Amino acid sequence: MQLIENLRLAFTSLLANKMRALLTMLGIIIGISAVILITTIGTSIQKTLTNTFNSLGNFNIFTVDVWLNENDDGEGFIESEMISREMIDEVIAMYPGQFSLEMSQSGGTVTTQNENGDVITMDITGVMDVVPAADHLRGRTIQYKDSQNKKNAIYVTDLFVRQYFPEGADPIGQTVNLTFENGVSADFTIVGYDKLPKIYEKKFAPGTKEIDKTTPAAVPLDSLLSILHQEIRPNDRVYIRYNTDYDMETMQQELQEFFDEKYAEYPRYYITVRDQQSELGMINTVINIVTIAISVIAAISLIVGGVGVMNIMLVSITERTKEIGIRKALGAQNSAIRLQFVVEAIMICLIGGVIGILLGIFGGMAIGWIAKLLVEQFYAEYAELIAITIQPSIPAILVAVFFSILTGVFFGYYPANKAAHMNPIDALRYD
After folding, report:
1. pLDDT for position 185
2. Which of 248, 336, 352, 354 could form a disulfide with 25 if both were Cys (CB 3.0 to 4.6 A apart)?
3. pTM higher than 0.85, yes or no?
């Protein structure tokens, strides 16, 4: 009952001096809103990165790097000692179904003609494998074995299907003749098709006829290189996609052991195998550190706000000296007087904290909305790929509430204790 009475008295006091109470809360509001805004931005950046990586399907990739040891003789990297295609093929053969080489190369522009003689232009990319992007995939994608066997397979879009075939025709298994920039023509069999990426639609000028639109397509990398009379050269970095049906840590260890064994005869080098998730984790760690550091700096304003609370409580106690004297004359204990003013200080800080939290969340959402507009305005081609997500930090909100209460206790205790130890006779005589 005593706590409820103290809450009632605190509200009465705040309502009696609304403007003073609001100005007193201002420091708390600014400090809490700054912390919430900063943590909301930090959390939102992390969530945006994670969602964007997920949408791109780039999480299940190992990056294998060759590095020079400190005791290198200065000769540097030697191409014949780098990671070769033969090594990758050996990895895939040793662990069937677990790995595939993540590699692509632009094949330039190719053309073909449909039954009506319309010329269809395609941007060809040679790939080792393609990960299905969505449920609207028909047929299958390019697979690693297609490249190994130099199979003339092609993976197209629904735009190409509409351009090349009559309405209702099934393109799977059909053959198209492609003419490459070097003049070589070859027949390719359609193994699958998918919806045209929205990012491609943005490349077309308004009013462009559908038949005149350039469509992307993918063919096996080795098939493309054979036509272009090129080859995959050894490299000091390769990307290996792994099957998520297997344990990621086990596969990472298997790759590390495999390449460590291969490079045991080359003491000048050492190998690292990193996964994209750990790289994203490192980025998130850096964001966390920066967010915490800036939040601590922003939280310093809470001290200023706390001093303001202490100051106004001292003024309030001076104004209410007679009230305190009457209460003590009627038998109120020091603890009751102290609790009354501590509760009032906590109430000021708590209300200020809640307002600050709401402003911080609103500010974070506003920044997210502005960021989306800027991306759509200046980076329209990437708008579909960047999954901007605004997510307030729940732990930061809980910590903000706790620190609001703590600020009230810390900065309200001294004035409250001063009020509790007033001499009732002196208080009653105060004018």
Report:
1. 92
2. 352
3. no
Instruction: Write the burial class of residue 41 (CB in 10 Å: 0-12 exposed, 13-18 middle, 19+ buried).
Output: buried
Q: Would you say residue 105 has pLDDT above 90?
A: no
The amino acid that residue 296 corresponds to is V
> What six digits make up the tokens of 88?
């990758």
As a whole number of angstroms, the distance between CA 336 and CA 320 comes to 15
- Whether 325 and 427 have beta carbons less than 8 Å apart is answered as yes
- C-alpha distances (whole Å) from 43 to each of 264, 302, 358, 386 are 43, 22, 16, 16
User: Crossing angle of helices 2-16/18-56, nearest 10°?
Assistant: 100
Task: Sheet containing 237-242: give its strands across.
Answer: 99-102, 237-242, 61-68, 269-275
Q: Which amino acid, 255?
A: L
Q: Burial, 199: exposed, middle or buried (Cβ in 10 Å; 0-12, 13-18, 19+)?
A: middle
CB of 91 within 8 A of CB of 255?
A: yes
Helical H runs in 220-275?
Answer: 221-228, 248-262
Q: Which helix (H) or strand (E) holds 351?
A: helix 334-378
CB-CB neighbours of 122 under 10 Å: 25
**What 3-state class would DSSP assign to 385?**
coil
Q: Please tell me the distance from the alpha carbon of residue 105 to that of residue 128, in angstroms, as a whole number.
A: 10
Q: DSSP 3-state assignment of 101?
A: strand
Query: Residue 84 — φ and ψ, nearest 5°?
Result: -105, 165
Query: Is there a contact between 423 and 349 (Cβ–Cβ < 8 Å)?
Result: no
Closest by CA to 234, choosing from 109, 87, 90, 97, is 87
Average pLDDT of 103-126? 89
What size, in residues, is the chain? 431
